[in-house]
Amino acid sequence: SLKGSARAVEKLVRSYEGRVCRLLDVCRHSIVFEEPGQLADCLRCIRDDDEVEVLAIKNRLSHDYDAGALSLGYRDVNINLRIVNDNTRKHGIHPHVCELQLLLRAFSEYKSAAGHKRYVAFRNARGR
């Protein structure tokens, strides 16, 4: 999915001081897993894929991540990556960064319409 233009501008102003190069989640997708082992297998596949360039990983499943204070309980593994192969080079899109969210079904309800509405209110209160 694509981030809406209004939210992209809001995020640039609130979080990135207008620096467009920091906005990396315009193109994003989620994969939902039933079990943690499935998520770990997916991470290994991404790591081992020669056409995937991983730029950053946020592990919100870590015990060190305070999901209650930072995201109303939502947890995922968030990856910023590029697909670099002959086809992406041919079309000039190999520098494009995508966001991939890997999450467990138990946390997917936070991404429902009602859950997202609560998160938006929380985010706005924090000014992010």
Main β-sheet, in a few words?
Answer: 4 strands, mixed
- What is the 3D shape? globular
Structural class by helix and strand composition: alpha+beta
Assess the beta-strand content as a share of residues: 15-25%
Task: Please provide the ordered H/E string of secondary-structure elements.
Answer: HEHEHEHEHH
Contiguous low-pLDDT stretches (5 residues minimum) are none
- Radius of gyration from CA coordinates: 16 Å
Q: Helical segment tally?
A: 6
Distance between the termini: 21 Å
Mean pLDDT, to the nearest integer, reads 83
Helix content: 40-55%
Query: Order of strands in the sheet with the most strands?
Result: 1-4-3-2
Number of strands: 4
Oligomeric composition of the shown chains: single chain
Overview of the molecule:
The longest helix is centred in the last third of the chain and has 14 residues, at 113-126. The protein has helices at residues 5-15, 36-48, 67-71, 86-90, 105-108, 113-126; strands at 28-33, 52-59, 77-83, 98-104. Strands 1-4-3-2 form a four-stranded mixed β-sheet. The chain starts with a helix and ends with a helix. With 128 residues, the protein is of the alpha+beta class. The chain is globular. The mean pLDDT is 83.
